[in-house]
Structure formats: structure tokens, C-alpha cells
């Protein structure tokens, strides 16, 4: 019994006083194993299709495989609902909370409240600045942006564009990832603006990654600068908004547009040659890594990870998993299907059947 208590105490210390309640030692010294509980809060279902079509199913499968009971909910872009969901998860016995914040301020409030109740936390995909989660699991987001910048350059070169005016449609100003994406693509584009090879056009962030607002913003951009020749759109939803506007001027396909997330819509826009590229992030790997760490925390273990990121607010290092993103153009759309991220049936529906056949997708 003594060693049982000692082992439990060590486990508690190892994770900073969290998550000891997954396995409780009874007074007789026998260990009663309760299924550990993890709460996951996704941000919304409109800023990108990924959260509901990819993250949810991969997380469900990963937690099931890890023998962890997971409650996965979506805050539907409502910051106060986000906090309420977190509180309910903790009341219902979650010992680990994994969040995709809606912004760092409200995310930090959720993480702080969880911590104060002995609940371990993980930042999933988006880093909560000042938040001090146990782990951050994401992709190399600066590289995501770099791939977008390089993709746009390739498409502009292929079109023989001379001194193209490039518009930038950035992600939400309150999403740290949007900052990292922009750092990445600007590292490619800025030298070209500086040398005069490219002309810097309008550059605007889209609040909350709102696709409808993105269309309004891009419509204004194009009205003010009708000679926009390339669009760096930070994800497939924003890219599609730009494409919709370009279509009205019959400029789709002539003006390359980037994206991210390898959504069905983004991939179809690529097959139609209205979109120049997207970035595929293998969400299965992200979900698997996060679920493994969460399962560990729920069982009182803090597994070690290879990477670290520095939180620019606290200046502290956060243990991290940073996965590798992949650039997708018409030539390798099929890889996303082979990987099981989208099905040929959904991608190749209706008018896309012929385009899929051309791209070798069965
Ligand atoms: C994610 C992207 C997503 C965007 C909008 C970002 O934080 O990394 O994959 O497209 O949020 O939901």
C-alpha cells in the first residue's frame, strides 16, 4: 500500500499536480481503474471544414485506441459557450482539457481555470499566448506559410506574370497561427516586393477567418486594385471567397489563389484550376500525437516530446509536437485521397468526375 501511495505521489508530481484521479488507489491498497476522461473543445465549424470533417473523427479514433473516454465538443465560435463547455467538462470529471482557442485572451482564461482545478491542459493546433498549457501539438506553421508563398511564386512564374500585384488575405488577427502563416509567406514575398519583382497590393486580415467577410474584403480589394494578379489566401475558405469574387470578373484561373487545409472544396478548386495550391496537414498525425499525450496526462504520466516553442508572451518554452505540412497542387491531389483524408467519392462527385480521372484519382 505504501508503495502504491508513493507511486501515486510521484505521478502527481510528474505532471505538476494534475490528473491523478484517472486511477485512484483505494484504502485497501487495490487500484481501481476508472476510464480516464479527456475534454476536447474545437473552435467552430465554419472557418474551415477541417474541424468537423477531419479533427473530430481522427480524435475520436485516437482516443478510442488509447482507451480514453473523450468528450469532443465544438464551441461554434462562441467565446462564452467555450468557457461554459470547459467548466462542464471539468465538473463531469475530465482530468485533461485540450483546446483550440478562439483567441489567446479567452483561451488563457479557460486554461487558467482548468489549472486551478488540477486539470492538465493541451493547446491543440493553436498556441494560447500566455496560456502555459502542458503541451502544444500542431504543425510547423511558419513552414505552412512558406509553402503558400512558394506555391504562389511557382504559379505566377508559370503564368509568366510580370511585376504582379499580390494581394494578401490573412487569417484571423487573434489566431497565433495566422501570424505564423504570414511570417512564413512574407519571408518569401517581401524580398520580391523589396526588389521590385512583385508589387505589394492590399494586405488585410479576416476577422475570425470568416469566409463571408473575406469575400467582402476581397471584393473591395479588387475594386480598388483591379490589376491584382495573385492572391495569397491563408486557407481554403478564404481562397474560395476570393475565387467567388474573381469568377464574377471572369478572372478565376487567371489570377492564382493559394489555400490551406486540403478541404474538398479547396481540392476541387485546384482540379478546376481556379486555385493554385493548398497545404495538406495530415490531421490524423496531429490527432494521434495529441491523444497520446492527453492519454498519458490522464494516466499521470508526462511523456517527453522533441520540440519546444517559446511563448512570446511568457517567454517560456512550451513542450511541443510540430508536424510537417505538405504542398498540394494539381499534380499530387491524389496523395490526399490515398492518405484517406478525403474520399474519391466526395471529391469526384458530379462535374468533378472527369477532372478526377484526368488527375488519376479513382
Ligand atoms: C488552423 C487552420 C484553419 C484555421 C481556420 C488555423 O488555426 O491551423 O488549419 O484553417 O485555423 O479554422
List keywords for this structure.
362 residues; alpha/beta; seven-stranded mixed beta sheet; three-stranded parallel beta sheet; 14 strands; 19% strand; binds beta-D-glucopyranose
Protein architecture, described:
- It is built from 13 helices and 14 strands.
- The chain has 362 residues and is of the alpha/beta class.
- The radius of gyration is 22 Å and the shape is globular.
- Residues 1-32 have low confidence and may be disordered.
- It binds beta-D-glucopyranose.
- The site of beta-D-glucopyranose has 12 residues, from loops.
The first-to-last residue Cα distance is 60 Å
Helical residues, percent: 40-55%
Count of helical regions:
13
Question: In terms of structural class, how would the helical and strand content be classed?
Answer: alpha/beta
Strand order of the largest sheet: 4-3-5-6-7-13-12
| Fraction of residues in β-strands | 15-25%
* Strand elements, count: 14
> Which small-molecule ligands are present, each listed once?
beta-D-glucopyranose
Unreliable stretches covering 5 or more consecutive residues: 1-32
Computed over alpha carbons, the radius of gyration is 22 Å
Shape assignment: globular
Amino acid at each position: 500500500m505504501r508503495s502504491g501511495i508513493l507511486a501515486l505521489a510521484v505521478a502527481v508530481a510528474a505532471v505538476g499536480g494534475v490528473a491523478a484521479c484517472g486511477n485512484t488507489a483505494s484504502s485497501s491498497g487495490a487500484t481501481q481503474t476508472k476510464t480516464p476522461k479527456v475534454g476536447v473543445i474545437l473552435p467552430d465549424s465554419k472557418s474551415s471544414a477541417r474541424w468537423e470533417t477531419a479533427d473530430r473523427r481522427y480524435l475520436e479514433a485516437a482516443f478510442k485506441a488509447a482507451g480514453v473516454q473523450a468528450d469532443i465538443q465544438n464551441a461554434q465560435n462562441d467565446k462564452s459557450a467555450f468557457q461554459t463547455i470547459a467548466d462542464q467538462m471539468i465538473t463531469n470529471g475530465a482530468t485533461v482539457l485540450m483546446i483550440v482557442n478562439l483567441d489567446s485572451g479567452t483561451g488563457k482564461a479557460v486554461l487558467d481555470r482548468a489549472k486551478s482545478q488540477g486539470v492538465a491542459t493541451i493547446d491543440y493546433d493553436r498556441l494560447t499566448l500566455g496560456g502555459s498549457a502542458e503541451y502544444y501539438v500542431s504543425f510547423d506553421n511558419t513552414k505552412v506559410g512558406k509553402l503558400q508563398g512558394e506555391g504562389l511564386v511557382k504559379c505566377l512564374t508559370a503564368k509568366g506574370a510580370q511585376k504582379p500585384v499580390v494581394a494578401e488575405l490573412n487569417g484571423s488577427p487573434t489566431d497565433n497561427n495566422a501570424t505564423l502563416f504570414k511570417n512564413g509567406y512574407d519571408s518569401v514575398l517581401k524580398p520580391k516586393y523589396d526588389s521590385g519583382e512583385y508589387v505589394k497590393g492590399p494586405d488585410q486580415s479576416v476577422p475570425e477567418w470568416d469566409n463571408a467577410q473575406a469575400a467582402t474584403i476581397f471584393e473591395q480589394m479588387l475594386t480598388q486594385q483591379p490589376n491584382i494578379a495573385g492572391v495569397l489566401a491563408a486557407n481554403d475558405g478564404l481562397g474560395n471567397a476570393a475565387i467567388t469574387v474573381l469568377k464574377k470578373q471572369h478572372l478565376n484561373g487567371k489570377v492564382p489563389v493559394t489555400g490551406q487545409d486540403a478541404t474538398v472544396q479547396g481540392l476541387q478548386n485546384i482540379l478546376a484550376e481556379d486555385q493554385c495550391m493548398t497545404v495538406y496537414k495530415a490531421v490524423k498525425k496531429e490527432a494521434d500525437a495529441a491523444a497520446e499525450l492527453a492519454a498519458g496526462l490522464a494516466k499521470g504520466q508526462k511523456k517527453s516530446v522533441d520540440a519546444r516553442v517559446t511563448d512570446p508572451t511568457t517567454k517560456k518554452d512550451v513542450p511541443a509536437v510540430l508536424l510537417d505540412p505538405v504542398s498540394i497542387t494539381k499534380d499530387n491531389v491524389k496523395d490526399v485521397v490515398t492518405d484517406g483524408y478525403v474520399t474519391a467519392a466526395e471529391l469526384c462527385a458530379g462535374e468533378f468526375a472527369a477532372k478526377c480521372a484526368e488527375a488519376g484519382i479513382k
